[in-house]
Write a structure and sequence with these properties.
The complex is a heterodimer of chains A (about 280) and B (about 325). Chain A is α/β, with parallel strands linked by helices. Chain A has one domain: Thiamin diphosphate (ThDP)-binding fold, Pyr/PP domains (Rossmann fold, 3-Layer(aba) Sandwich). Chain A has ten helices and seven strands. In chain A, the strands form two sheets. In chain A, strands 1-2-3-7-6 form a five-stranded parallel β-sheet, with helices on both faces. Chain A has a two-stranded antiparallel ribbon with strand order 4-5. In chain A, strand 2, helix 6 and strand 3 form a beta-alpha-beta unit. Chain B is of the alpha/beta class and about 325 residues long. In chain B, the strands form three sheets. Chain B has a seven-stranded mixed β-sheet with strand order 3-2-4-5-7-6-12, sandwiched between helices. In chain B, helix 1 packs parallel to helix 8 and helix 9 crosses helix 13. Chain B is globular and about 60 Å long. Classes of the chains: A alpha/beta (about 280), B alpha/beta (about 325). At the A-B interface, helix 5 and helix 6 of A face helix 4 and helix 6 of B.
Chain lengths: ~280, ~325
Amino acid sequence: MAELGIDELQNIANKLRLDVIEMTTAAGSGHPGGSLSAADAIAALYFRVMNIDPADPYKEDRDRFVLSKGHAAPILYAALAERGYFPTEELITLRKIGSRLQGHPSYREVPGVEVTTGSLGQGLSMACGIALAGKLDKKDYRVYCLLGDGELQEGQNWEAAMFARAKGLNNMTVLVDRNKLQICGNTEEVLALDPLPEKFRAFGWNVTIVDGHNIRQIIEACFKASQAKKGPSVIILNTVKGKGVSFMENNVGFHGRSCKPDEYEKAVEELKAVIR
Amino acid sequence: MSGEKLAQRSYYGKALADLAEIDPNVVVLDADLAGSTKTSSFEKVAPERFVEVGIAEANMIGIAAGLAASGKTAFASTFGVFASGRCWEQIRMAVAYPNLNVKVVATHCGLSVGPDGATHQALEDIAIMRALPNMTVVVPCDAHEAYAATIALAKTNGPAYMRMGRSEFPVIKPADCTFTIGKADVVREGTDVSIIACGQMVQTSLEAAEMLAAEGINAEVINMATIKPLDGEAIKATASKTGAVVTVEEHSVIGGLGSAVAEYLSENLPTPMGRIGTKDTFGESGEAEELLVKYGLAKEDIVAKAKEIIKLKS
């Protein structure tokens, strides 16, 4: 694939957003808010950063992606389909009986899905295992893992954070979708995560903080992480939940519900206006 | 060899060490208990493939899943209470549902853990593990079978839970025994009552069978070393021969071997039966032998239950 420019990647991110709205509306359920906040990072990873081949989804030296915040499955499926792993027509089968597109990602049920996630707090451990296998086998693939911010309240993440540093897993780049909203409200009110960068630093991680909707910053941070000699790296993506659709932005109501018909019309209109 | 006292976990360690030589894909994880679970035997010969995760069982399962998703055969070990209970949901989502090649191998299961007490005596692990789809559940009867089962599990793709005790106890099987997942074996032939047991209780059941023989009752003893998939044919064969079944396990009567056999018989060949196991209770501190007597798992309890069930035969 020819290297895409920032504008093209931004356009793809918005297309993925439109897919998310179409899919979750067709399903009548799902998690659009945290899918939209992650769209730019997912576009950057799948269309620029990661060494992957949709024609050979499990080639040995591929980079691996773990969606620890498995409820954002729609954005992962959208990226896989738009990248050519499976037909985009299949996207609207999300969450329907008999579909490969399970409500939360299921290991290899869809080509390109590397692990099963959905129960929060486990993806980072799985990413550690994949990164460790890479070290054991002397492969130079990288493991990318996207965490939700609320998910960091699960203690298992910090077990994994300790492990990744202790084992020198510098072949792992973790991204945190810091949209500051979880089901019951603001993360800082539900159970404060801040100061989040300091927490990771205390665990010995390389920390970069970027605007999670600035694709250039995301790509640069991923490059920097890939050059790190010591320790694992985390990129904290400052994001807006529901990004890209005005009435969904910072609206926790859209964490776990899809658009009603009038909302759908408006969301599609807004997204189509910015897609070339 | 028969009658020699050996610890299953030592033979698990031996098997892992042998696997290190023959299978480069095997990796072993432990959570700060390598000396107790005997995974240290693997660490000695293949330190680069041994993963110490610290006291973090949930993380251990996730790492094992990631390794398995990358083509490894991952053995993850700790004490039974932690291996099954602490990280049950991690095993459910990260291992069982994606059907990954992770073997959760638990030591220190059952009352015979002894003085550590109830917190450390896994009595519910068979129940919660066999409830998981895709999960194989193996409970070897002695150290030699633990060795053979470890090798067999390594050669079979997919999730498994293997349960072992802490203490040394007499071996029944020869050192060169083989293990077939899903196959029970008759360790003593008889005609009057079937005693279906697993783990250390197979030995106790054989002793009970000798006591019954002295009273003119000819008991058959079945070693049900795989709880899942259950060997229904073996159950049917022995139950139709004797018409009376007693199950014996160092586990709660809720959800374990006894439940599995009861489920099978009630649906396929209703037969009078009774279950020996702990009775909806936690254990306590004490020596293994004292606890087995106090909680109704002694050979005398098996004898009494066998006689009671024989009376129910029509």
